[in-house]
Automatic annotation (TrEMBL):
It comes from the Eukaryota. Its EC number is 3.1.2.22. This is Palmitoyl-protein thioesterase 1. It holds the Pfam family Palm_thioest. It is an enzyme of class 3 (hydrolase). One of its GO terms (molecular function) is palmitoyl-(protein) hydrolase activity. InterPro entries: AB_hydrolase_fold, Palm_thioest. One of its GO terms (cellular component) is lysosome. SUPFAM superfamilies: alpha/beta-Hydrolases. PANTHER family: PALMITOYL-PROTEIN THIOESTERASE 1, PALMITOYL-PROTEIN THIOESTERASE/DOLICHYLDIPHOSPHATASE 1. Keywords: Disulfide bond, Glycoprotein, Hydrolase, Signal.
Length: 406
């Protein structure tokens, strides 16, 4: 539907039609990508073919063209060199790319616990209160297949005395890690929803626990689907209403960090970035909230801030959740502002003034049902004293005991 808004004149109209139909040959793609109409080039590449990775894999490039970077450069295709390097690494050495992501400052990985307290099921009164399963979503650079996520899923499930599962958006550790960067937020939510629906143990609903970026996936699932329904969601140090700065670089107290944040806003608000990078989908530049952000951002759609008006389904699905437990890291250096972990945000046009939840536009106008949920007593606030994803096993058990088993 987006492609239909663009007009392509001969001699590329036939190739463009083939692109839309998904019938492109390698020669056709090269002609389109080399055209002077870069709008058509980029749209075809990212929106129809699924990006450079899908292009290279779909058309089984000849042996002399296997070097991904050389292939694109050789055909005069002008993509940013750093992206070519990342995509090339994904094709030639996905293990290396996965390790690079996991060891980068961007990674939000739960490390698990050393000699944790026994995960003894808590029984209140004569019976256990909840029998619904627990579903986990991991953070940026992490994976359900990593030891930390496996341990935490197991401990929490045993504590609650229920079935527990971490839902990956890839089929192995490599793809699950990389998809947290090179597969956009909407697509991650779609995969998550499909895997939830594919697990018969979740058919009657579940409780959800998200860590860092995994909270964006859970929020998207709740608002877009919520079937099977989420009863209680525990958002641990979440990116639920976006970020406005680089990890480890607070735009509120460092002019260089403010510059980088502003530069990021210039980069992410276009269809290419929004269709390609998970983090671009929830970057919320306070300087652009009334312009490009509303026009392009996936987060703006979920917040009902976009030009398309209010999608009542998003609010209705949000309202079906019984409890929202918002856990903020008081010394967080990954999520800026960290008040966002409690539904707050920077004020429009300002990197210094932080609005608490009840002063944000989405709360005051009840754009997606947050105010209604708060007035119904569904919003609960917790905090941890340390940095991002620094919490104890006692914290984990207290969240389970106080909000799932009561």
């Amino acid at each position: 539907s987006i492609l239909s808004h663009f007009t392509v004149t001969p001699p590329l109209s036939r190739e463009y039609d083939q692109c839309k139909a998904g019938l492109s040959t390698e020669e056709t793609i090269i002609r389109i990508l080399r055209s002077i109409n870069m709008t058509v080039s980029i749209l075809c590449l990212f929106m129809v073919l699924g990006g450079p990775l899908a292009l290279a894999e779909r058309h089984k490039l000849s042996e002399e063209s296997r070097n991904f970077t050389d292939f694109y450069h050789g055909h005069g295709i002008a993509l940013p060199p750093v992206l070519l390097e990342i995509f090339a690494m994904h094709l030639s050495s996905p293990v290396s790319l996965s390790r690079l992501i996991q060891t980068s400052p961007l990674a939000a990985i739960v490390r698990g616990f050393h000699n944790p307290l026994p995960s003894i099921p808590r029984i209140f009164g004569a019976k256990q209160i909840s029998t619904l399963p627990l579903v986990f979503a991991h953070g940026m650079g992490d994976s359900c297949f990593n030891p930390g996520m496996s341990q935490i899923t197991d401990l929490a499930a045993k504590r609650a005395g229920v079935y527990g599962v971490c839902i990956p958006t890839g089929d192995n550790q490599l793809s699950d890690t990389v998809n947290g960067f090179l597969m956009n937020m909407d697509r991650n939510v779609e995969v998550f929803a499909a895997k939830v629906r594919g697990d018969p143990k979740l058919k009657n609903g579940f409780h959800a626990v998200g860590f860092s970026q995994g909270n964006s996936i859970i929020r998207g699932y709740i608002q877009k689907y919520n079937d099977p329904p989420v009863n209680t969601v525990i958002h641990v140090h979440g990116t639920i209403v976006g970020v406005a700065g680089f990890p480890q670089c607070n735009p509120d107290d460092n002019i260089w960090c403010k510059f980088l944040a502003s530069l990021s806003g210039d980069f992410v608000y276009n269809m290419v970035a929004q269709q390609t990078f998970f983090q671009a989908n929830y970057f919320r530049d306070p300087k652009k909230v009334d312009t490009d952000y509303k026009k392009y951002s996936q987060l703006a759609v979920w917040n009902n801030e976009g030009p398309g008006g209010v999608n009542q389904t998003l609010a209705e699905n949000f309202g079906k959740v019984d409890k929202f437990v918002m856990v903020k890291a008081l010394a967080d250096t990954m999520v800026f502002p960290n008040e966002g972990e409690w539904w707050g945000a920077f004020a429009p046009g300002d990197y210094s003034k932080v609005l608490p939840m009840n002063q944000t536009e989405w709360y005051q106008k009840d754009l997606f049902g947050l105010k209604t949920a708060d007035k119904a007593g569904k919003i609960h606030f917790e905090s941890t004293p340390g940095n991002h994803l620094q919490f104890s096993v006692e914290n984990l058990y207290s969240w389970i005991d106080n909000y799932i088993l009561k």
